[in-house]
Design a protein that fits this description.
The protein has a single domain, classed as Phosphoglycerate mutase-like (Rossmann fold, 3-Layer(aba) Sandwich). The radius of gyration is 15 Å and the shape is globular. The protein is of the alpha/beta class. Helix content is 28%, strand content 20%. The chain contains 4 helices and 6 strands; from the N terminus they run βαβαβαβαββ. Helix 2 (67-80) links the parallel strand 2 and strand 3. A 6-stranded mixed β-sheet has the order 3-2-4-1-5-6, with helices on both faces. Helix 1 packs across helix 2.
């Protein structure tokens, strides 16, 4: 990964965020419909404030349609000044594998420069590793941000990735 940039076109920035901690209190709910725990809500607020301080408002927030992921995205959106009604939910991001994540990213609109993607493990951890950062496990409400020196989402790769930052919720 490069530490310096020598290009004159807009870069793409991807913030990969795992949903916050979900509650196991209601055993009648299936996995898809689990809500955030109180800790998950608090960590989402803290992570949203952190993202806002590092990046400001992203151009797009896209999330798994699972209840805990969408709730995380809404809390993050509030903290970064992103309109909640503009959050894109995508059923295909629920428990998506790396190839599905890459296909979703490749289809992002060209005018989007910074995208925050909220999803699930193990796919998100695999995606981070694909871009060249060795990570065993992305914890809940934790984020990794990459910048890509390309102007096309369909051309992001390990070769043009640059780790900008990472933040684990437990360290906030």
């Amino acid at each position: 990964m490069r530490a310096t940039h020598s290009f004159n076109y807009p870069m793409k920035r991807l913030i990969i965020l795992r949903h916050a901690k979900a509650s196991w209190d209601d055993h009648n709910l299936n996995d898809f419909n689990r809500h955030l725990s109180k800790r998950g809500e608090l960590n989402s607020v803290l992570m949203g404030k952190f993202i806002n301080s590092k990046q400001g408002k992203p151009d797009l927030i896209i999330t798994s349609s699972a209840t805990r992921a969408y709730a995380t995205a809404k809390i993050i959106a509030e903290q970064v000044g992103y309109t909640i009604d503009e959050i894109i939910t995508n059923q295909e991001l629920y428990l998506a594998w790396i190839n599905d994540l890459l296909k979703t990213i490749a289809k992002l609109p060209h005018h989007i420069q910074t995208c925050l993607m909220v999803g699930h493990n193990p796919g998100l951890t695999d995606l981070i590793n694909y871009f060249g950062v060795r990570l065993d496990y992305l914890p809940t409400a934790s984020a990794v941000c990459f910048e890509f020196d390309t102007s096309e989402w369909s051309k992001i790769s390990k070769e043009n990735s640059n780790l900008e930052w990472y933040q684990f919720a437990k360290d906030l």
